[in-house]
Specification:
Elements (H helix, E strand, L loop, with lengths): L8 H13 L4 H8 L3 H18 L1
């Protein structure tokens, strides 16, 4: 059994920001970055929740 891939915070933020832009569907982002769409939705939600603490 293989280990899960670990992504850096910078990579997660980059993908989440791309998702927030809304220029591409999540499915296309998932294909481009080699991720499952659910991961992108989770990272996007985490970015938005974290941003609410800054404002």
């Amino acid at each position: 059994m293989s280990k899960r891939k670990q992504h850096s915070l910078e990579f997660k933020a980059k993908v989440a920001k791309e998702a927030l832009k809304g220029e591409e569907p999540i499915s296309e982002l998932a294909s481009r970055f080699g991720l499952h769409p659910t991961m992108i939705h989770q990272w996007k939600r985490a970015l938005l929740e974290g941003a609410s603490g800054v404002i």
